[in-house]
Design goal:
- The chain has about 270 residues and is α/β, with parallel strands linked by helices.
- The protein has two domains: about 190 residues, Alpha/Beta hydrolase fold, catalytic domain (Rossmann fold); about 70 residues, no CATH class.
- An eight-stranded mixed beta sheet has the order 1-2-4-3-5-6-12-13, with helices on both faces.
- A hairpin with a 6-residue loop joins strand 9 and strand 10.
- The two termini are about 25 Å apart.
Length: about 270
């Protein structure tokens, strides 16, 4: 069920899939939304209560003043407080959401019982693009439109990611004059740029049990970095899944099984 809370003058929308099980906070990646974890919630059943926010600037949540990691972390803490979840919860993050999860575990250790990092490195490259405001590899965002009169116009501007990642999440404008993306392209560029840099200190500061999931064909998390992340952080398990960076959605059954197996062992 979808709910919302106010943080200052912003709305943070979130999905609470309910159930009697232990709470699992699931943080999506960039260009995504909380609904990305609907399949995981179904797969885990009543053993886990999946809570998946639309992080700031994504989905039904309002745009924010900035997209630095501390803002994403503050939103997660505000959501836990809003839900009255004082006891530590398991936190799962994918890609950009895993950066948030890692810092949440490091900065608020009393709120995180275990951490699941899905294909997110601790050495995020800073922009190497000709234009500093456009991180390398994400130039396609500069050609995307935030709003359009028709769905077709938005999908055409979205290019190769349109049909797979954008189409299911398009929203009608409030005044019914057209459609919008589930994110503003500039907000995504700002988020990616802000996440760039070295996150080793945060990764090593976390003391809770952790699982690192790496996609075997990932270009986001090099194998050598993954090996070092596991070796240097006590209590960290490792699982490799066949696929690329988007393995939670291209191979959902494998992803759900890996997460379920780890959770069952906690």
């Amino acid at each position: 069920m979808r709910h919302a809370l106010k943080i200052d003058d912003r709305t943070l929308s979130y999905l609470d899939f309910g159930g009697p099980g232990r709470p699992l906070l699931a943080l999506h990646g960039g260009l995504s939304e909380g609904m990305a974890f609907a399949g995981l919630a179904r797969a885990l059943g009543d053993d886990w209560r999946v809570i998946a926010p639309d992080q700031r600037g994504h989905g039904d949540s309002d745009r924010a003043e900035h997209y630095r990691t501390e803002g994403y972390v503050a939103d997660a803490v505000a959501l836990l407080d809003h839900l009255g979840l004082d006891s530590p919860v398991v936190v799962l993050g994918f890609s950009l959401g895993a950066v948030t999860a890692v810092h949440l575990a490091a900065e608020h250790p009393g709120r995180v019982a275990a951490l699941i990092n899905t294909d997110s490195t601790v050495e995020v490259p800073r922009s190497a693009a000709a234009t500093p405001s456009v991180p390398a590899g994400f130039e396609f965002l500069t050609g995307m439109r935030y709003t359009a009169a028709t769905r077709e116009e938005l999908l055409e501007a979205a290019g190769p990611i349109g049909s797979q990642f954008v189409a299911p999440a398009l929203r009608p404008l409030a005044d019914h004059s057209g459609w919008r993306l589930p994110f503003h392209p500039q907000d995504m560029l700002d988020s990616i740029a802000a996440a760039g840099g070295d996150h080793w200190e945060a990764w090593l500061a976390g003391t809770c049990p952790a699982l690192l999931i790496r996609a075997t064909a990932s270009t986001a998390l090099p194998q050598a970095t993954a090996d070092a992340m596991v070796a240097r952080r006590p209590g960290t398990s490792y699982t490799a899944l066949e696929g690329d960076h988007f393995v939670p959605f291209t191979h959902p059954d494998d992803f759900h099984a890996a997460v379920g197996k780890y959770l069952a062992g906690l």
